[in-house]
Amino acid sequence: MKTIEITPPYLIFLGTETKKHLAKTGAGLVEWRPELCKGQLSLIDNGVSLGLPDMTLQQAVDAGIKTVLIGTATVGGSIPDSWLDALEEAALLGLDIVAGVHTKLGDIPRLKAAAEKSGSKLIDVRVPPAKIPVGNGKKRTGKRVLMVGTDCAVGKKYSALAMERDMKAMGMNADFRASGQTGIMIAGEGIPIDSVVSDFVSGAAELLSPDNTPDHWDVIEGQGGIFHPGFGAVTFGLLVGSQPDAFVVCLEAGRTHVAGWEDDYELPSIEDVIDRTIAIGSLTNPAIRCVGISVNTANIPEAERKAYLEEIEKRVGLPTVDPLKGGTQRIIERLKAEFPA
Amino acid sequence: MKTIEITPPYLIFLGTETKKHLAKTGAGLVEWRPELCKGQLSLIDNGVSLGLPDMTLQQAVDAGIKTVLIGTATVGGSIPDSWLDALEEAALLGLDIVAGVHTKLGDIPRLKAAAEKSGSKLIDVRVPPAKIPVGNGKKRTGKRVLMVGTDCAVGKKYSALAMERDMKAMGMNADFRASGQTGIMIAGEGIPIDSVVSDFVSGAAELLSPDNTPDHWDVIEGQGGIFHPGFGAVTFGLLVGSQPDAFVVCLEAGRTHVAGWEDDYELPSIEDVIDRTIAIGSLTNPAIRCVGISVNTANIPEAERKAYLEEIEKRVGLPTVDPLKGGTQRIIERLKAEFPA
User: Which part of the chain is the D-glutamate N-acetyltransferase-like C-terminal domain (chains A, B) (predicted)?
Assistant: First the structure.
């Protein structure tokens, strides 16, 4: 697959971070890929912990770790100078370094020189692979389910990860396909679709879910929203290139307006998102259909969750779940019923 | 405007080209912007001519020419070595050089050094301006009409140029807005929308048609097609960012399948394109409407043209013209009727 690829196992690099919510990427890795996270490294005494064994870089190498993953979001998206000694040492020890920050790792001369010396790789998960083709729109083998959202940041990535986990637990052949930087770090591979030049965005989506066996499901992380005034083109290209057989609409309970565009844009209804996704997705897969609704209910009182999900389920007529509070099995049952082996 | 900008008047550079159809960019410039084209330069005796005065580079400088525009499409999209002496001399004389080829001008060391010495600019019209913002979706002043197509290469650019010319002749306040490389060379400014990273494509479209006076029309060159399996995301972003009040559907008479995707994709109907464009365009302009159909009839016998246009006009109920065989006045009359001053 012509995607970014990251070699496990990982040492999660926590730098000088003290706040857990700023180590979200690292926490996501530990949550969704615990088997790949062998250790953590904080540069300070009172730093944040993800509950992994603390290791020096040399200990990481001795333990067979291949990659240092920067697991924190830094203010401004750059790499603090105080981290460079450790990252340079990691590169000199032959460890790959993976980051999703704005500063490119290869633009930092000390790191570039160290990586060249040892032959290790500096991987920026914001940078798409080279030579992505234009989408060809040809039918691929295997099956695909895409997360689509009423908006950005509603839980599309976690819905896809939960579906992958639950599908595997139910004995299905499924793989999460990452289309954004945090998803790529979790999956260990993928393409940052929003960073691809627009002429090639559906071609990138085609690379992300290549031909597969008839029983295999790609569970594809969504991006943006088809009614989003800023990012809709990304959503469109991902939808057309993914040629999904099925999709799940993801939303955040209680959100009424497009986040960041509140003055001008109300959110579309779930029904609007379903209709528009089918209309556009039919171009490359005329049999596309919606199989469920995934709601992030973190922002409403727990006592209201059940009624909230039931109201949507009754109205829309599709299994409606919070993927992190009870799992996605009911959506998967629907998927199996719609697409019998 | 944060777009590519080219300084007139121009010397059209024809290199070693002998075939007129490969000097299409130069011919387009002479056709649509004759007042800006002051001379031509061929490097060979039997080279192609656009009917402009032949000039040496020094004569061009003496005549007040500011920019050398490469007016030919070269095989493979690179710049032949045999052109470099002349282009280097042009840069040393302080002339800007503009090209739309794959090789970046600034990547040719001789040209880069010459331009740095004289302070002239090397402009690649395939390279979008830096720091394009995410689309904000805010309503802008002034009015906009966008060309949309049933496919790529159906005449969207020439339809827009013909509308601009005819609108000006009818006393209206109108400007062609170029979204592709040849259009940018003709307009002298613009943004190559298909080269913009997908996160920013609607933001680029917003830059392309900024706030203007209430009576002003931007006549925006379209890209791709909203039912195109490869380039639809570009079309989507341009549509949403342009927030057009009106649009014109462009097609090529007789074409039945998506060019280059013939095995898999039939063309959508005009009615499908109208409906989908209104559905998507309503996000940023709920009053969007279609005002006409522009048909490139070059591929059908002249005797059939009238009946072909009349059949569409009767079926769709909108003014239907070939913009290069009779003008776009009937579409413009419809535009004026729909949007009275």
Answer: 134-331
